[in-house]
Amino acid sequence: MNKVHEWLHGRWTVPVVSGLLILASLASSRLLDAATWGDILMVAAAVVAGTPVVIKAWNALSAKVIGIDLLVSIAAIGAVIIGEYWEAAAVTFLFAIGHALESATLNKTRSALAELIAVAPDVAVVLRDGEQVEVPAAEVITGETVLVKNGTKVPVDGVVSGGAGSIDEASITGESIPVEKATDDKVFAGTITTSGFLQVTATGVGADTTLARIIHRVEEAQDAKARTAAFMDRFSAWYTPAIIVMAIIFGLVTRDIVLALTLLVIACPGALVISIPVSIVAGIGRGAKDGILIKGGEFLETSAKIDAVALDKTGTLTEGRPQLTDVVPLHADVDRDELLQTAARAEAGSEHPLARPIIEAATAAGLPVVGLPEHTEPVPGKGIVATIDGHRVAVGNLALIESEQGHDTADDARVAQVVQELAAAGRTPMVVARDGQVLGVVAVADQIRTDAKEMVARLHEHGVKKVIMLTGDIEPVARAVAAQVGVDEVRAGLLPEDKLEAVADLQRQGYTVAMVGDGVNDAPALATADIGVAMGAAGTGVAIETADIALMRDNLLKLPEAVSLARRTVNNMRQNIVIALGTVAVLLAGVLFGGVTMAIGMLVHEISVLVVIGNAMRLLRRRKERTGTRSTDGTGSSLTHDEARVTQPA
Amino acid sequence: MSTTTSTTKTILRAEGFSCPSCVAKIEKQVGRLKGVESVKVHFASARVEVMHDPALATTEDLVAAIAKAGYTAKAAAF
């Protein structure tokens, strides 16, 4: 009985029953020559298919909405009154079929999100009093230890506290290659373990997980109206009543009721109403599956216009983790090791970001950096002066060394040359002097990301005219990085407000600017840009909520992908509007110049609706160009950042 | 924040929204229930947000009301 009940309320019941009645009517009037029965069955078909439409039209009217249902209701009832039973049945039947197909296909365009929701975990195995207890995923308590076995979903956001394994994070980052996880690594709810066994300390549960934030964000984005959509809403609000008025005037003037009713049917704005929402839903859904979160329709439209991209250097184009690149001894009695060790010992008491790579390199080379200097004195903007074993050691730029008392000027020219060469190669040189004697120069450099160059190339490919690098770093270093990455313009030595000014300057030149950044110092520029892009947002809830585009994975190639997706979605929207308006125009001409009946009008109209939905569904297909699988230098697709290491000096 | 009523927010995800006029229909059906304070239907994402008193209108009641309007809905954890 349940099956019957379900079927009676199913999507296809009305069109099937109505269709059978139409067939019975045709059969009885043609074969049995029972014209009256034929008419009765035809009206019955119209009643079956038309009743839900009339009810909907009534509901809409009581909510003061004049919609498609009203147009179809008037047309069908009118057709019955004037004795055009076949037209009435055909129109309502086709409308019912169209609706059933629409709802089936519309669900498909929402499928990307449905898949995301489907990965939400149901149950979790937690350790309570030393025992494994299975609880609903949303009822895990923050701080509890959750056991994640091989092949199961991670039920909560958390930090690995024991065990090791690999996890497929595709649902969060869009990347399907499993990621190795060990103690202290972050894991996300909704990702799936592909091997190993993990103990996870829960940090986020239920609505407080990254997955939940993504789903919310995507839904809000799909519901948020694009400017074009808002315009179309206003348009169809007066369009439908206008059509009714036009049909009445037409009917009065021509005294041709059939023509007036046909006008009503063919002018249905069905395709028009859904043309934009389906594209947006499909486009934003596709992005979400690939780890690209776009804030909403309006941002999608703006993103499609991006023609300038401003990138922060440190942490975006580069790893943001400087490494030692050069050790150049310039003193006859000092070798590489001694030079490096001296520099490292002097820096041991320093908080400066450039101190860490020097100390790390010395430790790695087996040179002990024991204890702190007896005295440490940072010289702002220049370097550091420390006292080691009674000697005064200075590590810093040329200005610092020149100010050192009793410094030997004999080598000045040579030191300056080395410093200049290193800076020109994109490294940050530091001169090391002991008691006024220059021992040599050490240099550190930030690693350029492997995919930085390809990202810039692809941005250009996708129609971005200007890619500009903004950095607080010094000019020669910035230039060297820029040359390797291929950006169009560099602005170096910038303070946070200068970055903002640079973005505003581009906007004044007429560019639609996207700014990519990660640090707090980029915040003003991110806010000023037309589109603020956050990278590697999976770990930070704030980025997911606030950025106009949040790229879940720390992968530069997601940026051109996002721009391309935005352009394709907006193009799709435009195509849909053209299809919808074009259909109405052609049908209108067809009616006025004869030949198009009510039934044909409805058929073409429903087809146009399905074409619009089908067109939007193209966005759901993944493009062939896949992130991370293409390589411009032919070295394959491995994207380990270590390979980006700046060439070591011989 | 300081209200003492036991109103909770339930999010349901529905299937088969095909036209924006479905919105009014569901809002009406669900809004009619006792204990329902407000209903918001999002067309594009096929999502229904209901503020209700779970003692008067259970989640099952909400699902049933949406079914009466002709749509299948499921309650979601978030």
Defining traits:
heterodimer, A: 650 residues, alpha+beta, Calcium-transporting ATPase, cytoplasmic transduction domain A, Rossmann fold, Calcium-transporting ATPase, cytoplasmic domain N, seven-stranded antiparallel sheet, seven-stranded mixed sheet, 24 helices, 20 strands, B: 78 residues, Alpha-Beta Plaits, 2 helices, HMA_dom (chain B), Copper chaperone CopZ (chain B), metal-binding (chain B), HMA_dom_sf (chain B)
Report on this model:
- The complex is a heterodimer of chains A (650) and B (78).
- By secondary structure, chain A is of the alpha+beta class.
- Among the domains of chain A are: 122-155 and 157-204, Calcium-transporting ATPase, cytoplasmic transduction domain A, CATH 2.70.150.10; 290-318 and 448-562, 3-Layer(aba) Sandwich (Rossmann fold); 320-447, Calcium-transporting ATPase, cytoplasmic domain N (3-Layer(aba) Sandwich).
- Chain B has 78 residues and is α+β, with helices and mostly antiparallel strands.
- Chain B has one domain (8-75): Alpha-Beta Plaits, CATH 3.30.70.100.
- Chain B contains 2 helices and 4 strands; from the N terminus they run βαββαβ.
- In chain B, strands 2-3-1-4 form a 4-stranded antiparallel beta sheet, covered by helices on one side.
- Chain B starts with 7 loop residues before the first strand and ends with a strand.
In terms of DSSP E residues, the strand content of chain B is 25-35%
**CATH class term of chain B:** Alpha Beta
What is the count of structural domains of chain B?
A: 1
Q: What characterizes the major β-sheet of chain A?
A: 7 strands, antiparallel
Question: What is the first-to-last residue Cα distance of chain B?
Answer: 20 Å
CATH-derived topology of the domain at 290-318 and 448-562 in chain A: Rossmann fold
Strand content of chain A: 15-25%
Structural class of chain B: alpha+beta
Number of strands of chain A: 20
